[in-house]
Design goal:
The chain has helices at residues 2-8, 35-44, 49-81, 95-126. It is an all-alpha fold and 129 residues long.
Length: 129
């Protein structure tokens, strides 16, 4: 109760601090563009165009990967509803096809991660320490 009351007694203009500051184990583990690098880039005036084009490429890759995973996810529904005797019934994808599609999405994710790492290294080299 004491902690709750401490937050309740905060003034109208003050923002109460969270009682417990927890961070997820992996919350900061995958940032390629650290806060220091972002701050240096902002101060140095580095051209942002190449990074925005790269983000556009990532958006396209993510949209494609999302669509593929929706197809893979829906395959169980198609399998449950497939009737060999019904000529209009669509057969499900084979396990091999599902494996190929899943591996393709995995490759896309790795390609995105590698591209972001390269972009972070290039940006880091362009901004002064």
């Amino acid at each position: 109760m004491a902690n709750r009351n401490n937050n309740l007694n905060a003034t109208d203009k003050a923002i109460p601090e969270p009682l417990i500051k927890r961070k997820a184990l992996l919350e900061n583990s995958f940032h390629q563009f650290g806060d220091d690098l972002i701050g240096r880039a902002e101060r140095s005036g580095v051209e942002i165009g190449p990074h925005l084009r790269h983000l556009n490429q990532i958006a396209v890759l993510c949209a494609g990967a999302s669509m593929v995973m929706r197809i893979v996810g829906a395959n169980d529904v198609v399998d449950d509803n497939y009737d060999e005797k019904d000529p209009d019934s669509e057969p499900p994808l084979s396990r091999y096809a599902v494996g190929v599609l899943t591996n393709m999405v995995s490759e896309i994710c790795e390609m995105i991660g590698d591209g972001i790492c390269v972009a972070a290294n290039k940006l880091s080299a362009k901004v002064p320490e």
